[in-house]
């Protein structure tokens, strides 16, 4: 990972050269920054889903490629999604996607762990 990472570079596709590792079934993660906040890229295979989970802090998601959905809506490329502390949802991507995600605190998975 480069020392400086810009949103412009990510939206232009620099994420394609980054190293991803398995995270959950059908989802890979590239950790950008650990700690608080944690920043990562998540790459969903078509049809992949993250199980129902609760946010113990703010989560910010920028959809870089493809789209993802949850109980609150459908988010195509370019969408910025803010999930507040205490929110609960299940995320899925029918077509596959790559998102830049930031958690201020770890999430609590409620099912499928």
From TrEMBL:
Q: Which SUPFAM superfamilies match?
A: RmlC-like cupins
Domain of life the protein comes from:
Bacteria
Which residue numbers delimit the ChrR-like cupin domain?
16-101
Please report a single Pfam family linked to this protein: Cupin_7
Record's protein name: ChrR-like cupin domain-containing protein
Q: Which organism is it from?
A: Sagittula stellata (strain ATCC 700073 / DSM 11524 / E-37)
Q: What's the source species' lineage? A: Bacteria, Pseudomonadati, Pseudomonadota, Alphaproteobacteria, Rhodobacterales
């Amino acid at each position: 990972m480069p020392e400086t990472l810009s949103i412009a570079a990510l939206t232009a596709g620099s994420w394609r050269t980054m190293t991803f590792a398995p995270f959950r079934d059908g989802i890979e993660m590239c950790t950008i920054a650990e700690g608080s906040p944690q920043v990562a890229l998540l790459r969903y295979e078509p049809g992949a889903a993250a199980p129902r989970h609760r946010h113990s802090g703010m989560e910010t998601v920028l959809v870089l490629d493809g789209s993802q959905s949850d109980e609150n809506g459908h988010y195509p490329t370019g969408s910025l999604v803010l999930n507040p502390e205490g929110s609960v949802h299940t995320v899925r991507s029918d077509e596959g996607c790559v998102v830049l995600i930031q958690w201020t605190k770890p999430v609590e998975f409620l099912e499928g762990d």
